Task: inverse folding
């Protein structure tokens, strides 16, 4: 085990190896967040966060190269952009529910526009394609440490606060009546979703990241009966999809993001087919 | 079949002091400034009553329920539940929402749902053994203890509605608020539901929101009519004329929409 971790952080690790390790390390957090995103139906907020991350990247790279703020890296920008966007949408949806989808669309497009504008005015080469569709060459060893930290802030609270979390996701109104601080849970969930999204941008890209977040959880949801088993199952599926997709893309020289997402989508469709057949049998036998 | 285990205690309703559990005074509420959904509402509900909240769609029934639960704050006026604010009284209030407003595909078991009724204001939200026992007893009281391990999403509408009542009961409330309990369930399940409700009314104050005026005659003693204004009637004297006054048009549905399934004699529990 120790040897394995030692190997992980060797300086000469290949980019494929690095991306593979990142994908597998991210899968516990991905399982938890993906499940919550699917059951709380906030995938469009995750999408807005991902696209706003590009705005953050654009502004950060501009500040770094034009104003020479060396600390202002692309990662800092992506995290700030995604978290700010997710929290903005969250606060709006908590205060005025009916305008939520409009705000999501605005934040989504605004993030992209800001990002494209600032990247255009940033001197030097910027791999826009890499941000949009993923580029595993962009994965660094720092990302591995960030992934471990993300697992700590996602998985530990999910285990510790499992009951109030379950009550909040199942029936928020009732949870409020039982004294659960659902708004706090919701905003923390949005912030953690944004962080997860940012971490996966290098692997699958901004455009495809929502698919990687939701497909494993949606597939897991077809054959699990508890929130916790859905989380575990979706984490395992995430690890499988990412590794299978990366290996396939490497051996057949295909872009990694689309291959990962297509593998996940294929499994989801199969799972959906079998679960709807099972449900069909049940409802014809049991009635309403 | 619902068990009759908890139905024998009929003491509650008559020998308890008839103090008011709900007191609403001069309440105004509107979602937007300038237009009131509820206007100048004053009424009180004595402990042990069985009340039915009726009124047309959009008349403010759900709004009134949310105000009683402290989910909405009145523009002016006052609400006291158990002599305190709705928020402070929540521990003693059980609430059952309409099942079809919840996600039908959510991965959760029946026992897990019932346990949510035991959630307390502790930091971790862990359940004790006493919580499990109370949740199982509540499921048993609703006649669905055998479904404990089943997935909530695999149940029929009537079963889901009873799981949600069990969740409200698991918190051992003194006031039970039911939102449209018979909407979207089949007639057989509705009959069972009325039997179960009859038992609950012996132990606690029960207010039921219903769009269905036929529900009034099912063992209720109070009728709370809500259509922007609120008026309180005795169920025994609630007539078609009174209903017309609330709905502002002829209500002949009282006669033939729907008949009541339960044997509402107010004494024994009839189901086995």
Result:
């Amino acid at each position: 085990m120790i040897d394995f971790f030692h190997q992980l952080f060797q300086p000469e690790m290949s980019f494929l190896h690095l991306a593979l390790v990142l994908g597998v390390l991210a899968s516990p957090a991905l399982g938890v967040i993906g499940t919550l995103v699917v059951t709380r139906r906030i995938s469009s907020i995750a999408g807005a966060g991902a696209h706003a991350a590009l705005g953050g990247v654009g502004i950060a790279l501009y500040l770094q190269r034009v104003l020479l703020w060396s600390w202002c890296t692309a990662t800092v920008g992506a995290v700030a952009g995604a978290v700010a966007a997710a929290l903005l949408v969250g606060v709006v949806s908590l205060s005025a529910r009916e305008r939520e989808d409009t705000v999501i669309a605005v934040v989504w497009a605004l993030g992209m526009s800001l990002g494209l504008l600032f990247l255009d005015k940033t001197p030097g080469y910027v791999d826009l394609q890499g941000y949009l569709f993923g580029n595993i060459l962009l994965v660094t060893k720092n990302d591995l440490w960030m992934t471990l930290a993300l697992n700590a802030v996602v998985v530990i609270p999910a285990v510790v606060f499992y009951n109030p979390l379950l009550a909040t996701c199942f029936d928020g109104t009732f949870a409020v009546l039982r004294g659960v601080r659902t708004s706090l849970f919701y905003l923390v969930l949005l912030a953690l979703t944004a962080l997860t999204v940012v971490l996966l941008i290098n692997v699958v890209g901004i455009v495809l990241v929502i698919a990687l977040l939701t497909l494993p959880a949606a597939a897991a949801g077809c054959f699990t009966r508890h929130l916790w088993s859905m989380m575990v199952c979706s984490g395992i599926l995430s690890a499988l999809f990412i590794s299978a997709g990366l290996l396939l893309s490497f051996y057949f020289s295909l872009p990694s993001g689309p291959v990962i997402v297509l593998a996940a989508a294929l499994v989801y469709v199969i799972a959906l087919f079998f679960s709807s057949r099972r449900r069909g049998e049940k409802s014809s036998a049991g009635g309403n | 079949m619902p068990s009759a285990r908890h139905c024998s205690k009929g003491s509650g309703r008559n020998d308890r002091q008839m103090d008011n559990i709900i007191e609403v005074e001069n309440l105004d509420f509107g979602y937007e400034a300038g237009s009131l959904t509820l206007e100048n509402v004053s009424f009180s509900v004595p402990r042990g009553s069985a009340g039915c909240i009726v009124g047309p769609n959009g008349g403010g029934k759900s709004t009134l329920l949310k105000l009683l639960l402290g989910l909405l704050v009145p523009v002016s006026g006052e609400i006291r539940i158990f002599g305190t604010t709705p928020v402070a009284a929540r521990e003693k209030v059980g609430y059952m929402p309409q099942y079809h407003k919840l996600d039908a595909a959510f991965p959760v078991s029946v026992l897990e749902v019932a346990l949510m009724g035991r959630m307390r204001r502790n930091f971790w939200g862990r359940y004790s053994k006493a919580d499990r026992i109370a949740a199982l007893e509540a499921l048993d009281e609703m006649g669905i203890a055998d479904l404990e391990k089943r997935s909530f999403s695999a149940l029929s509408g009537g079963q889901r509605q009873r799981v949600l009542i069990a969740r409200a009961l698991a918190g051992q409330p003194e006031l039970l608020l039911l939102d449209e309990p018979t909407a979207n369930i089949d007639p057989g399940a509705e009959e069972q539901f009325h039997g179960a409700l009859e038992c609950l009314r012996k132990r606690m104050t029960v207010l039921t929101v219903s769009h269905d005026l036929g529900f009034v005659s099912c063992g209720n003693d109070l009728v709370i009519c809500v259509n922007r204004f609120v008026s309180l009637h005795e169920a025994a004297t609630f007539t078609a004329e009174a209903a017309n006054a609330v709905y502002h048009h002829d209500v002949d549905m009282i006669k033939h929409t729907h008949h009541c399934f339960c044997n509402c004699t107010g004494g024994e529990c009839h189901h086995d």
The CA atoms of residues 61 and 226 of chain B lie 6 Å apart. Strands of chain B lie at 20-29, 38-46, 50-54, 76-81, 93-96, 175-179, 205-209, 222-227, 229-234.
